[in-house]
Automatic annotation (TrEMBL):
GO terms for biological process: apoptotic process; fatty acid metabolic process. The lineage of its organism: Eukaryota, Metazoa, Chordata, Craniata, Vertebrata. It catalyses: octanoyl-CoA + H2O = octanoate + CoA + H(+); tetradecanoyl-CoA + H2O = tetradecanoate + CoA + H(+); (9Z)-octadecenoyl-CoA + H2O = (9Z)-octadecenoate + CoA + H(+); (5Z,8Z,11Z,14Z)-eicosatetraenoyl-CoA + H2O = (5Z,8Z,11Z,14Z)-eicosatetraenoate + CoA + H(+). CDD domains: PaaI_thioesterase. The keyword NADP does not apply. InterPro entries: HotDog_dom_sf (IPR029069), THEM4/THEM5_acyl-CoA_thioest (IPR052365), Thioestr_dom (IPR006683). It is found in: Cell projection, Ruffle membrane; Cytoplasm; Mitochondrion inner membrane; Mitochondrion intermembrane space. It comes from Gopherus agassizii. Residues 133-205 form the Thioesterase domain. This is Acyl-coenzyme A thioesterase THEM4.
């Protein structure tokens, strides 16, 4: 069974590995669902975006601890050949590397396919501290890269960050909620140019702005193309 994005409300996607009989599904936990560490501000913003998903304008993007679990359709099976069982078990996406809820990266992404836009609701926890009481700039770079990267992945398929340029305008208080808003500006051959703004929920504070260049790695179809075929 393959679903993308998953339609179930429990956030659990069932998939089968090619080397495993179909009676042995793998359950991947979706981390982009509310948990008890989410503040009221995070919950309100999440509900607002869920509401905007109802007419199909926006799509909630599930978040798993391993990048291969994000790849739908044929590419998913192909990717399994490229990654051993051991690698699957022993690796984790960097922003999903902490088990305790609320201490690290709490985030959820939403995609607007027609605008080629990905937003991320981000609540940085206490283990992301840089300056006292504020998020480390590296954690801000990580969430920007992940949001922009997911946006580029949606539009172009397998990509890598070639350049990421960030201007830090105002520090992000730990435990606050910010909106990371990214979009594809231009695609030229293998090059995908994107931009991003990180703002407070009320839009009054600009925390950071960024531009990025991603390079498409191969000729696989974009996730957008794959989704429209399903
Ligand atoms: C429904 C939607 C679902 C969306 C979500 C789905 C999935 C999400 C999945 C998982 C989510 C997880 C994370 C999100 C995704 C990503 C975030 C993390 C991304 C990273 O954390 S990634 C690690 C850091 N990243 C690197 O570790 C890159 C090291 N690097 C290289 O691996 C190579 O460098 C490479 C591949 C970049 C290029 O190498 P290459 O050999 O393929 O290509 P080449 O060098 O020929 O460049 C081709 C043309 O780009 C120009 N060019 C290249 N680099 C440039 C630069 N820096 N500035 C200006 N121009 C540049 C050249 O000048 C040439 O231009 P021209 O063709 O005009 O001459």
């Amino acid at each position: 069974v393959e679903e993308f994005p998953p339609s179930g409300s429990n956030g659990v996607t069932l998939r089968c590995r090619s080397r495993v009989k179909s009676s042995c599904p793998i359950q991947s936990k979706d981390y982009a669902l509310p948990n008890s560490s989410w503040s009221q501000g995070m919950m309100d913003l999440y509900s607002r975006f869920l509401e905007m998903c109802k007419d199909g304008t926006w799509k909630r993007i599930p978040s798993y601890s391993n990048s291969v679990d994000h790849i739908p359709g044929k590419a998913f099976w192909e990717s399994l050949k490229l990654m051993s069982e051991k690698e699957r078990k022993d690796t984790r996406l960097f922003p999903r590397n902490m088990d305790t809820e609320g201490v690290g990266f709490e985030y959820a992404m939403f995609l607007n396919p027609s605008e080629k836009r990905m937003v991320c609701l981000f609540q940085p926890g206490p283990y992301l501290e840089g300056p006292s009481g504020f998020a480390h700039g590296g954690s801000t770079a990580t969430i920007i890269d992940s949001t922009i990267g997911s946006c580029a992945t949606f539009v172009a398929g397998r990509v890598m960050t070639a350049n990421l340029s960030i201007n830090y305008r105002n520090p992000i208080p730990l435990g606050s909620v910010v909106l990371v808003d990214s979009k594809v500006d231009q695609v030229e051959g293998r090059k995908v140019f994107l931009s991003c703004h990180v703002r407070s929920i009320d839009g009054q504070t600009l925390h950071a702005e960024a531009t990025a260049l991603f390079i498409r790695l191969d000729s696989t179809k974009s996730l957008q193309q794959q989704m429209s075929c399903q």
